[in-house]
Amino acid sequence: MYEIIYEGIEENKEYEPIIKKVIEKCFEEEKIQNSKLCMTIILTTPQNIRKINKEYRNIDKETDVLSFPMFEKDELDKKIENNDFEYEDVLGDIVISIEKVKEQAEEYGHSFERELSYMLVHGFYHLMGYDHIKEEDKKIMRPKEEKILKSLEITR
What is the pLDDT of residues 113-133, one digit of tens each? Predict the structure, then answer.
């Protein structure tokens, strides 16, 4: 279902139960828990995420989370609808700046768990083909994110 990679930061086993429950809930909510879809979650530094952001998006600045989906939304929807999971498929990668998670949790006045969980859910829905650039897309993506967090009782 997922692999965690620590890139440039110390491995921290405290993050792993949070990641496990959030990603499992995401897969369950989207009814893909029995698929052979897998993803990589890369926990890293602000410097590293800035480098990745510049390389792949041509944006030379730090960010909190980046997602790299392997499918277009309609292609993935069709695969899910047809239960086309004979082989393992990569859903994509989520890259998260742990330092940014800590900063933003403090800034927004909620827990580290809440902020990390939000980054995971947000990244997951990008991998699923959702976006939030246009207001009409945001109206679809945001409620999905909130539903996951609420069902896990991870509140602000």
Answer: 999 999 999 999 999 999 887
Bridge partners for 2 per DSSP: 39
Please name every residue paired with 41 in a beta bridge, in sequence order, or none if there are none: 4, 94
- Which residue has 């409620």 as its token pair? 143
| Domains observed in the chain | 2-151 (3.40.390.30)
pLDDT at 148: 96
Alpha helix positions (H), the chain = 15-29, 46-57, 73-81, 98-108, 112-127, 135-151
Task: Give the separation between CA 83 and CA 96, rounded to whole angstroms.
Answer: 30
Two tokens, residue 46: 């602000």
The 10s digit of each residue's pLDDT in 84-114 is 887 889 999 999 999 999 999 999 999 999 9
Closest C-alpha among 32, 51, 45 to residue 5: 45
**Is the model's pLDDT at 134 over the cut of 90?**
no
Closest to 97 in 3D by CA, of 4, 1, 9, 2? 9
